[in-house]
Amino acid sequence: MNAFGLIQIGLILSSTTIISSPQCNHLPLQQRKVIENSLRLLDKMGKEFPQQCLRDKMSFRFPTQVLQPRQKETVGVAIEEILQHIFYIFSKNLTLAAWDRTVLDQFQNALYLQIEQLEACVIEKHTQHCWSKEVSRLKLKKYFRKIDCFLKDKQHDLCSWEISRAEMRRCLQLIDKVTRKLKN
Question: How does the average pLDDT of the chain come out, rounded?
Answer without folding.
Answer: 78
